[in-house]
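Severity: low
Component: inverse-folding endpoint
Summary: output formatting inconsistent between runs
Steps to reproduce: submit the following structure tokens with default settings.
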């Protein structure tokens, strides 16, 4: 089954709501499982729970089928997201447009690869879709179209 991963802020920001709405639409369109991911930074001293994340999402969007809520702790948001995407072998990653430029910088630092599209194709085998706060989505990179093999 196809897996869509969407990193969000907590509490949900306007941009996170737009990104999550697009991820829900894509998961529904592709009959996919959805993972809602929040990265809790060690240095912030906050402790977000899966239950709190789930309640916040359900307040905005209602109960969602085939959804997994994940809270990971880390020092760098982008690195923690990449780790989760790779570990879960996500087919599609839906991120905010601001997050995409941070990903580029992080990937350059971590892997000395200035081309995020090549990195994602070679390392993650995932489609990355960016979403602006106004809800406009753009496909950033696509490895296999984010679909299961026949």
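Observed output (run 2 of 3):
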């Amino acid at each position: 089954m196809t897996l869509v991963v969407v990193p969000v802020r907590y509490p949900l920001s306007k941009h996170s709501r737009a990104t999550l709405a697009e991820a829900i639409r894509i998961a529904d369109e592709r009959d996919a499982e959805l993972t809602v991911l929040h990265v809790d930074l060690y240095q912030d001293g906050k402790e977000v729970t899966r239950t709190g994340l789930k309640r916040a999402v359900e307040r905005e969007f209602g109960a969602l089928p085939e959804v997994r809520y994940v809270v990971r702790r880390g020092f760098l948001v982008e690195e923690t997201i990449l780790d989760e995407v790779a570990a879960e072998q996500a087919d599609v990653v839906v991120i905010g447009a601001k997050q995409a430029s941070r990903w580029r910088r992080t990937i350059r630092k971590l892997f000395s690869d200035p081309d995020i599209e090549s990195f994602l194709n070679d390392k993650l085998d995932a489609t990355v879709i960016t979403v602006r706060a106004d809800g406009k989505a753009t496909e950033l990179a696509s490895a296999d179209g984010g679909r299961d093999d026949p």
